[in-house]
């Protein structure tokens, strides 16, 4: 019976992953045609209208009124709504700066943050194998950032918008105050502080050079692709949101009511901005059916993803549900190649390593 329950939980989580992967590609499509806050506001209008209609159609109006009288539930819905707005707006901005296939893999860090947060917030204790899975994910992300962001000729791949702006790293002295100096071995370049007169033997110099090159590559890649760094921050916020969703689910007697409350709070800030500063967004939306359909689908898929995820929490730990949900990464990366012609051949091996880490987490739960 326990195994069947877990299977149901993972089925819901993978359904959420399917919705998320579709959302990622639609968000990338819309990112070049509207501002981030506008996309969030317009998609959330769809969410609130659909959820509101479902609440009324199912006769949950009285429960909704009662729910607004529960202080803890209101605070949880408000906090989750505000954080989800920040995440959605930041993600739309990240997708304007950086290729989709370099953004979404960093969502694999969400289970890492959740293992810590869930222990304190909802008292979920991970297994040793689950922790090992998170370490594999972290290693995969590190390698993706260090090697997967290089182009076919081995050059650092920069975001298109940064290339258009003419932002190019200097060869002699870089942003981090270091300059290249050939070692005594000849072709091996070492990184030493600019203006430094320090001297090391070849072995020590090689060790320091490799470490510094590795860390500098990480920082240079994130600098060239700021959307990746933004997505890493979003992954941390998503971890907190996932726990808030679970706490809200535990405090409510009606999942649909909680979802409506949360989305209503989420809508307030972006809608206020659009009404005050960007009223023309509605006109632009009406003029482009393609964008209108994409934004409407983003909203509907968001509802489907949230509902499936909250249902999964009935059967499995939050960190494991999120790990299963994040299998959407692979589908999103493949979608970036199909729909946006992004070069993913060099990135797929590192994405698969992160995928293997998530598999370890799922297997840990199955044994547990």
Automatic annotation (TrEMBL):
Keywords of this entry: Membrane, Transmembrane, Transmembrane helix
An example Gene Ontology CC term for this record: membrane
Gene3D superfamilies cross-referenced by the UniProt entry: 1.10.3730.20
EamA domain span: 8-145
Residues that span the membrane, as ranges: 37-57, 73-92, 104-122, 222-241, 256-276, 291-310, 347-364
Organism domain of life: Eukaryota
Family: Belongs to the drug/metabolite transporter (DMT) superfamily. Plant drug/metabolite exporter (P-DME) (TC 2.A.7.4) family.
Name used for this protein in its record: Drug/metabolite transporter
């Amino acid at each position: 019976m326990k195994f069947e329950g877990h299977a149901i939980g993972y089925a819901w989580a993978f359904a959420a992953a399917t919705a998320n992967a579709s959302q990622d590609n639609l968000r990338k499509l819309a990112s070049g045609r509207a501002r981030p806050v506008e996309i969030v506001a317009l998609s959330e209008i769809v969410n609130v209208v659909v959820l509101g209609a479902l609440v009324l159609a199912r006769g949950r109006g009285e429960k909704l009124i009662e729910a607004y009288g529960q202080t803890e539930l209101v605070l949880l819905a408000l906090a989750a709504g505000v954080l989800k707005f920040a995440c959605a707006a930041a993600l739309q901005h990240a997708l304007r700066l950086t290729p989709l296939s370099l953004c979404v893999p960093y969502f694999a860090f969400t289970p890492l943050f959740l293992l810590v947060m869930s222990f304190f917030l909802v008292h979920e204790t991970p297994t040793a194998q689950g922790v090992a899975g998170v370490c594999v994910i972290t290693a995969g992300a590190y390698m993706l950032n260090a090697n997967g962001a290089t182009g076919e000729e081995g050059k650092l791949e920069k975001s298109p918008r940064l290339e258009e702006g003419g932002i190019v790293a200097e060869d002699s002295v870089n942003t981090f105050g270091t300059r290249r100096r050939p070692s005594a071995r000849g072709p091996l370049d070492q990184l030493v502080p600019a203006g430094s007169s320090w001297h090391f033997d070849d072995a020590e110099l090689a060790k320091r050079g490799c470490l510094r090159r590795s860390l500098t590559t990480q920082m240079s890649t994130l600098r060239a692709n700021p959307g990746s760094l933004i997505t890493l921050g979003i992954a941390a916020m998503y971890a907190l949101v996932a726990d808030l969703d679970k706490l809200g689910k535990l405090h409510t007697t009606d999942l649909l009511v909680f979802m409506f409350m949360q989305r209503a709070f989420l809508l307030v800030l972006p809608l206020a901005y659009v009404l005050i500063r960007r009223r023309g967004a509605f006109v632009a939306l009406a003029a482009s059916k393609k964008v209108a359909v994409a934004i409407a689908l983003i909203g509907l898929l968001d509802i489907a993803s949230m509902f499936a995820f909250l249902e999964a929490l009935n059967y499995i730990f939050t960190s494991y549900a999120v790990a299963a949900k994040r299998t959407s990464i692979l589908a999103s990366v493949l979608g970036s190649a199909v729909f946006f012609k992004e070069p993913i051949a060099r990135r797929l091996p590192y994405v698969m390593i992160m995928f293997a880490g998530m598999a370890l987490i799922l297997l840990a739960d199955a044994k547990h």
